[in-house]
Amino acid sequence: MDIKEYFARISYRGSYDKPDLETLTEIFQHHVQAVPFENLSIHCGESIELDLAATYNKIVKKKRGGWCMENNHLLSWVLKTLGYNVTLLGSKVYVPEYDAYADDIDHLLLKVVLCDKSYIVDGGFGMAYQMWQPMELISGKDQPQTPGIFRFLEENGIWYLEKVKRKQCVPNQSLSTSHNVDKEVCRRVYLFTLQPRDIEEFRPRNLHLQTAPDSLFVMKSICSLQTADGVRALVGWKLTEIKYNYKDNMDLVEIRILADEEMEKTLKEKFNITLDKKFVPINTSRLSLF
Fold first, then answer.
1. Within a 10 A sphere around the Cβ of 243, how many other Cβ atoms?
2. Rounded to an integer, what distance in angstroms lies between the CA atom of residue 123 and that of residue 238?
3. 35 and 63 in contact (C-beta within 8 Å)?
4. Which end of the chain offers a freer environment for a tag, N or C, measured as fewer CB atoms within 10 Å?
5. How many helices (H) and strands (E) does the chain have?
6. How far apart are CA 40 and CA 47, in angstroms?
7. DSSP character for 179?
8. Do the beta carbons of residue 110 and residue 72 sit within 8 Å?
9. Which residues are catalytic?
10. pLDDT recorded at residue 176
């Protein structure tokens, strides 16, 4: 594995000789705008491995994306290679339709300590709840970013991430399945503790999420990528493109339903992904990702 090859993959041409917050932020932003959050392997007959070499080969050499356990595992290697103090953490994702967090840890994120301050670095959540900058681990502080205002709340050792949502302008409103588009002002994203984790602890969940019939990732094919001013996502046959804060604290949401014959071209042109095997899109879960 070669750090310079990774930098070429994410088009990062800046310096990396000093492990500071500015360098961390630049690398992180390049990563989320170059590496999609996606689970397409499940839907084209491939398995998702947690071995770092396999993840590197998939994301860096094959120019694919991955889900949290791939993206953040790779990022942890990158940051450790550059001299950062990195700890793996586990979280439970919030499901608004059930108004509940997952029963088991189902998301991998990173804690980075810099100058006695802790930051959460999560390059593997995707969609419209993907942070664009490392977030200082401090309770109750609004941290405005391009996607919206994020903040952490801490209670009895449990940390909660939430995002304040903007209003949305959706020209094709009939195609939208967003959860409580107009009513929901603040969305809980996930909860976590600061207990250090090892990648081996995620192997059972990694297998479950790609094989269980009721897994969201088995029931939905997902590919999302952050752009210069928003995010685009292909869920099943639905292509959603969001432009953040395009006017008056409002996000523009454009939605289009694709035909099967448009899939390959769309993945290449919108996400820079070329698959080795036949992709079979699916969207049979009622759970919304927006």
1. 18
2. 23
3. no
4. N
5. 7, 15
6. 10
7. T
8. yes
9. 68, 107, 122
10. 66
Q: Are 36 and 65 in contact (CB under 8 A)?
A: yes
Residue pair 271/38 in contact (Cβ under 8 Å)? The answer is yes
Average pLDDT of 264-287? Answer: 96
Task: Please write the tens of the pLDDT for every residue from 218-254.
Answer: 999 999 999 999 999 999 999 999 999 988 889 999 9
What's the residue count for the chain? 290
* pTM, to two decimals: 0.95
- Residue 174: predicted pLDDT: 72
Amino acid at residue number 129: Y
Measured in degrees and rounded to the nearest 5, phi and psi for residue 42 equal -60, -30
Provide mean pLDDT across the span 33-59: 97
In the predicted model, is pLDDT for residue 94 greater than 90?
yes
List the Cα angle 151/68/175 in 5-degree steps: 75
Largest CA distance in the chain: 52
Q: Is 194 in contact with 111 (CB distance < 8 Å)?
A: yes
Rounded to a whole number of angstroms, the distance between the first and last alpha carbons of the chain is: 35
Mark 158-167 as b/e (b = at least 16 C-beta within 10 Å): ebbbbbebbe
Q: Considering only CA atoms, which of 23, 184, 38, 13 is closest in space to residue 123?
A: 38
Question: Could you give the CA distance from residue 132 to residue 23 in angstroms, rounded to a whole number?
Answer: 14
| Whole-angstrom distance, CA of residue 164 vs CA of residue 131 | 12
